[in-house]
Amino acid sequence: MPMVHVAQKKPVEEEIKEASDVVADSPHKIFIAGISGVLSSEMLVEIVSSFGQLAAYHFVCNEDLGGRCAFLEYIDHSITNKACAGLNGMKLGGCILTAVQVRNEASPFYGIPDSAKALLEEPTNVLQL
Question: Start and end of every RRM domain (predicted)?
């Protein structure tokens, strides 16, 4: 039986090197917060790359947020909405991810988008029995 050649997946380190470290402000920029301390930047790249190939990826510790966050953009812009839907609310390492599209807001280059601020606040007791 002939052997079928299967292309090997690129290691995560190569995917990070290929993606730009600068995520320009655009309607396709994604902000991710709620990243657990047990997840490394490389692990997060592997998770977000399951939706498609990254054009740009930037991982930072944000003082306003008091934690780690990431900004990214996919090469195929049609993936943006699907990736946000798939990543938002995902529980990883005991934390719940918040993933939103940065809609060209007047925020600093790597600041928290206004659309994510309400999602990052502590939940309140709405109904108590």
Answer: 29-100
Strand ranges, E, within 1-129: 30-33, 54-62, 67-74, 91-92, 95-96, 98-101
Domain boundaries, the chain: 40-102
Q: Which residue has the higher pLDDT, 115 or 38?
A: 38
Say yes or no to pLDDT of 5 above 90.
no
- Rounded to an integer, the average pLDDT of 48-62 is 94
Instruction: For the chain, give the number of residues.
Output: 129
Superfamily of domain 40-102: RRM (RNA recognition motif) domain (3.30.70.330)
120: Cα within 13 Å, side-chain hemisphere = 21
Distance CA(25)–CA(109), nearest Å, equals 7
